[in-house]
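Title: Prediction job returns without error message
Component: structure pipeline
Severity: low
Priority: P3
Assignee: unassigned

Description:
Job completed but the reporter wants confirmation the result is attached to the right record. Sequence as submitted:
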Amino acid sequence: REVVRQVDPEVQVQDLAADGDPVLPGQSVMRLQGSAASLLIAERTMLNFVMRLSGIATATREFARALEGTETTLLDTRKTTPGLRVLEKYAVRVGGGRNHRLNLAGGVLIKNNHLALWGTDLKDAIRRARQGAPALTRVEVEVRTMEEVRRAIEAGAEMLLLDHMTVDQVAE
């Protein structure tokens, strides 16, 4: 809708499917009526958005369904396409996932390289992070092994980022 509005606000738009509705190949999702020139100008950009964002929502929905019945929350990544962060995060929500954080200010993530640079242990790093962050900010710790999982939980991490773990490790 926004692409059409910017190209030609006179183009009439009719939604044939809502965000998140399953659609079949070849199924129309929108009907447009307006000048041929305006429609041709808007067409490729609209198709690119629909394909990319539908792909994100569809992939997210597949993962979310695989996790049904577990106590696992599917979160997205902050690593998004430049200029498309808000749209891609919306597509994740439409697909049944949740947004991790919008930007670096949305939480504290402690990685192994932080500990190495600071020359401190994890418990001290979490304490320091809490002192410098707003009161309701959660502290997340990146872990790669089950031993790191145990240490992070004992040190008081509210969230874990499971990095390079196998399916069996994640299940454990």
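Comment from assignee: result matches the submitted record. DSSP finds seven helices and five strands in the chain.
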